[in-house]
Design a protein that fits this description.
It is a single chain. The protein contains eleven helices and five strands, in the order αββααααααααβααββ. By secondary structure, it is mostly helical. It folds into three domains: 1-76, no CATH class; 78-84 and 126-213, no CATH class; 216-287, Arc Repressor Mutant, subunit A. A three-stranded antiparallel sheet has the order 3-5-4. A two-stranded antiparallel sheet has the order 1-2. Strand 1 and strand 2 form a beta hairpin. Helix 5 (132-146) runs parallel beside helix 8 (188-212). The longest helix has 25 residues, at 188-212. The chain starts with 11 loop residues before the first helix and ends in a 9-residue tail after the last strand.
Length: 292
């Protein structure tokens, strides 16, 4: 997806625009020189991507501002879960998964329904309007986000993503409605749950794009700073050994860790002390609240 020929410098703009059109549900005309041209109508596009951070950084470096400038990434619900390495003790799997079984049964029932298509093979799904109560909630959600897009607003730096959030909330609410009861108007309960989920992903997008837009060295420093604060608050301490940080922290590469420590030390976020062979990192007390 991110390293293919279609994402090369000569074709990335065209292909990102094509994916955007499909996501929007627009018709797409394919012009062919050696075979018959055709138009795709009534198609729907769903994309689920799981990618490592270095791969995505490389794509950003190659594509420049196109991925965000075209609105491609704004159409995603972004999540950037923190690593759980070091906190994954073995546990026996349960003998059965009743909730998962019910979920799979419902998905199978939906997939086994006849697909509504016209004579040309285009999808003609039924319209799912918002109920009056859900529409009022959608307007409230839309306006709350819109008010934060202006310069100085909390969502100004991710206004491309935020501007799609109300749209994504409505789409997700439609999925909930179909899953739980089929057609009909989308209820307020479905939209409330959908808007909570899209709002969480919007918060993730702020963190994701905020760090990804930084140079690698600064992004590493930000990640280390956050980990140190959380570790010291959890362990009720202001000091942590550098070896422990390298073994359990977000940066395992020695050179990257040293560079991040220097960056944070220059900004008075921490100081380093050596005692023989042991190196200790002392966090600035102003950054944490340690219980007595």
């Amino acid at each position: 997806m991110f390293g293919s020929h279609g994402m090369g410098g000569d074709s990335i703009m065209r292909n990102l625009a094509t994916l955007n059109q499909l996501w929007d549900g627009n018709s797409l005309t394919i012009d062919r020189k050696s075979s018959e041209s055709f138009t795709v109508r009534g198609a729907r596009l769903t994309v689920a991507l799981q990618v490592q951070e270095p791969t995505l950084r490389s794509f950003f470096d190659k594509s420049g501002a196109l991925a965000r400038g075209t609105g491609f990434l704004a159409r995603f619900l972004v999540a950037w879960p923190e690593s759980t390495q070091g906190f994954r003790p073995f546990t026996e799997a349960p003998e059965n998964w009743p909730a998962l079984a019910i979920f799979n049964q419902r998905i199978s029932a939906i997939l086994n329904q006849p697909v509504p298509m016209d004579d040309d093979g285009a999808l003609i799904p039924p319209m799912l309007p918002l109920s009056p109560e859900a529409k009022a909630l959608w307007i409230e959600y839309h306006d709350a986000i819109e008010s934060e897009l202006a310069s100085g607003g909390e969502l100004h730096d991710v206004r491309d993503v935020a501007s799609k959030s109300a749209d994504n909330a409505a789409r997700l609410a439609a999925l909930f409605q179909v899953f739980e009861g089929g057609g009909g108007a989308i209820g307020a309960d479905a939209f409330e749950r959908a808007s909570c989920i899209t709002a969480w992903h919007l918060s993730e997008a702020r963190r994701f794009f905020g760090e990804l837009a930084l140079p690698v060295e600064m992004a590493n420093a930000v990640r280390l700073d956050k980990w140190l604060i959380e570790h010291c608050q959890r362990e009720r301490t202001q000091e942590v050994g550098k070896r422990h940080v390298r073994q359990h922290g977000p940066l395992r590469d020695g050179a990257s860790l040293d560079a991040a420590i220097r960056e944070l030390a220059e900004h008075d976020r921490l100081r380093v002390e050596k005692d023989g062979r042991r190196i200790a990192i002392h966090l600035n007390p102003a950054l944490i609240e340690v219980a007595p």
